Amino acid sequence: MSKYSDYSDQKLIALLNQSFEPAFNEIYDRYWPGVFLIARNRLKDDLEAKEVVQDIFCNFWRKRALVQVEKSLITYFSVAVKYEVINRFVKKRRENIFIEQFSQNSPIKDSSTQETIYFNELEQNLMDSILLLPERCQLVFRLKFEKDYSQKRIAEELNISEKTVEAHLAKARKHIRTGLGSSLSFYILMCLS
Questions:
Q1: To bridge 164 with a disulfide, which of 61, 152, 160, 169 should be the other Cys (CB 3.0-4.6 Å)?
Q2: Domain 108-193 belongs to what architecture?
Q3: Three-class SS state of 97
């Protein structure tokens, strides 16, 4: 049991505003399970729910100096989940519309060849993107996705906290999404030229 477990949410937030990391850790430990359940109930997907919760807590830490909670932290996090889920649905819908429109106008008719070329290009870009990650971040990512280690096992193996593992994974996912997004744009430009 943490020595901060008896602190009220308001006291923890006041400490968080001063970048006091143990206050964030207590809030994280206290609210992660509930926030995850809310996200999972909305998304019906454990992995995506974990990503949503990870993003929310990363943003919460990033904006720690500005955090103001009028009602309760669970209300704050519930609203954050709602907006994050909406943003993901909107993004997926836009992507689906774009892919549908692109596939109707694509000059390439042999979809198996197109898919193979596209897949190979994306795979190469993924590998290149992973290699551009900082060494420690790259190691955490490879342990998670190539060796299927749990975050706890990674933390133990590298002698770092689970929060640090989560931060590395979030950074890697963001970096890779950005890298794959540019390769998708490059692919589209090549097909349209």
A1: 160
A2: Orthogonal Bundle (1.10)
A3: helix
Task: For residues 160 and 165, give the distance between their C-alpha atoms in angstroms, rounded to a whole number.
Answer: 7
Question: Which tens digits make up the pLDDT trace of 79-104?
Answer: 889 888 888 887 777 777 777 776 66
Q: What is the DSSP string of 118-171?
A: HHHHHHHHHHHHHHTS-HHHHHHHHHHHTS---HHHHHHHHT--HHHHHHHHHH
Q: Is the pTM of this model over 0.85?
A: no
The Cα 166–Cα 62 span in angstroms is: 14
CB 77 within 8 A of CB 38: yes
Task: Indicate the length of the chain as a whole number.
Answer: 193
Q: What letter represents residue 1's amino acid?
A: M
